[in-house]
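User: Reviewer 2 asked us to show a designed sequence for the structure in our supplementary figure. I'm pasting the structure tokens here. Could you produce the per-position amino acids so we can include them in the response letter?
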């Protein structure tokens, strides 16, 4: 049973994956197609072997039907991910990754692993990167105050994971600070 939006603390992972499905990705069509008309706009024409940018959801659908091969995104390679993991381990700031890197990598590795060089090594690197970033976000929550939380370069999925805890903690800290300030004002007026 779905909860009303007012009672949901955050998006579900499948909702975030749905949002990420609109990100553009390159494909190489295996057949010639005319322009396709969608609510969000037109895509195409498809002319093999010319690469074309399409929404990820369309690329995955075409891949499942063997109508294209997916061009692996620049960021989904061993060297790039190793570099980002090294940055995560030595820097306090989060390394710069695509906003939907978790969702896109999951969808692509699930559907188009044959189009991604070194897919198993990339899976391992993504897992290591995710664990390092989770530890860093947990450490960032320990310095939480009632004014702001400074964590740049988080992905939507990572933001979604800490949102329920942060929201509750932030509201409680604001209440405590308000009560403390009210008590100080009352004691100064006497």
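Assistant: Here is a per-position design you can include in the supplement:
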């Amino acid at each position: 049973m779905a909860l009303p939006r007012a009672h949901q603390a955050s998006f579900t992972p499948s909702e975030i994956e749905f949002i990420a499905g609109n990100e553009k990705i390159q494909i190489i069509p295996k057949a010639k197609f005319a322009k396709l008309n969608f609510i969000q706009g037109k895509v195409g024409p498809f002319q093999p072997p010319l690469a074309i940018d399409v929404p990820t959801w369309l690329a995955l659908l075409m891949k499942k039907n063997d109508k294209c091969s997916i061009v692996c995104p620049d960021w989904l390679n061993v060297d790039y991910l190793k570099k980002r993991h090294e940055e995560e381990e030595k820097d306090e700031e989060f390394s710069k990754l695509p906003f939907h890197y978790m969702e896109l990598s999951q969808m692509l590795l699930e559907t188009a692993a044959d189009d991604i060089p070194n897919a198993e090594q990339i899976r391992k690197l993504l897992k290591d990167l995710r664990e390092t970033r989770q530890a860093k976000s947990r450490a960032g929550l320990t310095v939480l105050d009632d004014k702001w939380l400074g964590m740049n370069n988080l992905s939507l999925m990572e933001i979604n994971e800490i949102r329920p805890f942060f929201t509750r903690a932030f509201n409680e800290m604001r209440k405590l600070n308000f009560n403390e300030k009210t008590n100080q004002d009352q004691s100064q007026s006497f």
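For the response letter, you might also mention the following. The mean pLDDT is 84. The beta strands are 24-29, 36-38, 41-43, 52-55, 68-70.
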